[in-house]
Design a protein that fits this description.
Layout (H helix, E strand, L loop, with lengths): L21 H10 L6 H14 L1 H10 L6 H15 L6 H12 L2 H13 L6 H4 L8 H13 L5 H6 L7 H12 L19 H20 L2
Length: about 220
C-alpha cells in the first residue's frame, strides 16, 4: 500500500529578497561586536565617516527603528564621532532637520542622540521641545539641557518644576544638578514630600551638595 505525503510549498510569487546596499553592508559591519571582525569593523567605520553627510543621513533614514540594542548604540556613538565635539556642525544640522519632520516616537530618540553628541550648540535645538505634548520628548529635551550646562538653562528647568511628577521630575532634577550651584535651592524643599523615593533622595542629595558648597566658601 502506497502512502503519499503532501508537502506544502510556500508561494514565493510576490516575495522579493531584501536588497542590501553598500551602506547597509558598511553599517552592519561597523556595528558588529565580534572581535574577529575588528579590521572589517574599523575599515567600515572609516568609510562611513568619510561619507560625512551621506552616511549620517542614511542612519537617520534607515537605522533609527528595528535595530538591535548594539546597532542603536552604534548610531548614537557614530553621531558623537562625526560631530567631533562640535567642530563638525553637519550632524547637529541633520538632527535638527530630522526633529522638525519626525513624529514624537522618533523625536525622543533623536534628542537622546543629540544629548550624547558632545556638541553644546545642540542645546538650542532641544529648547522648543521642552513643552511637547509627549512626556518622553520633554524628558529627552530636558536631558539635553542637562548634558550641556548653561546659565540660560536655569529658568527653563525651574519653570513649572513644582507641578512636575514621576520620571519627568527625576530627569528635571538631574538636569538642574548638572548646572552647578543653585541660587534658588529653596524651591527644592517642597519636593522632599514627593511620592517617589528616588525623587526625594535626589532632592536630599542636591540640598546636601548646596550646603557643602556654602560651607566651603571662605
Amino acid at each position: 500500500m502506497y502512502c503519499g505525503i503532501a508537502i506544502a510549498v510556500p508561494d514565493t510569487t510576490f516575495w522579493k529578497p531584501p536588497v542590501y546596499t553598500r551602506l547597509d553592508s558598511l553599517f552592519v559591519a561597523a556595528a558588529t561586536g565580534e572581535p574577529r571582525f575588528q579590521l572589517l569593523r574599523d575599515s567600515s567605520e572609516k568609510a562611513l565617516l568619510t561619507m560625512d553627510t551621506v552616511g549620517l543621513q542614511y542612519l537617520l533614514d534607515h537605522r533609527l527603528t528595528k535595530q538591535t540594542p548594539r546597532q542603536r548604540h552604534y548610531v548614537e556613538m557614530f553621531f558623537m564621532m562625526a560631530a567631533d565635539s562640535g567642530r563638525n556642525s553637519k550632524p547637529r544640522m541633520l538632527l535638527s532637520r530630522a526633529l522638525a519632520s519626525s513624529p514624537d516616537t522618533l523625536r525622543s530618540q533623536l534628542l537622546y542622540i543629540g544629548s550624547q553628541m558632545r556638541d553644546s550648540a545642540f542645546r538650542r535645538e532641544a529648547i522648543p521641545y521642552l513643552h511637547s505634548d509627549s512626556e518622553s520628548v520633554r524628558r529627552m529635551a530636558v536631558r539635553t539641557l542637562g548634558s550641556y550646562p548653561n546659565p540660560e538653562n536655569l529658568p527653563l528647568l525651574w519653570d513649572g518644576l513644582e507641578k512636575t511628577r514621576g520620571l519627568e521630575l527625576q530627569q528635571r532634577l538631574w538636569a538642574l544638578d548638572q548646572q552647578g550651584p543653585l541660587a534658588e535651592w529653596k524651591r527644592l524643599i517642597p519636593l522632599l514630600q514627593d511620592s517617589l523615593f528616588f525623587n526625594r533622595q535626589k532632592v536630599r542629595d542636591m540640598l546636601s551638595k548646596t550646603a557643602d558648597s556654602a560651607l566651603a566658601k571662605p
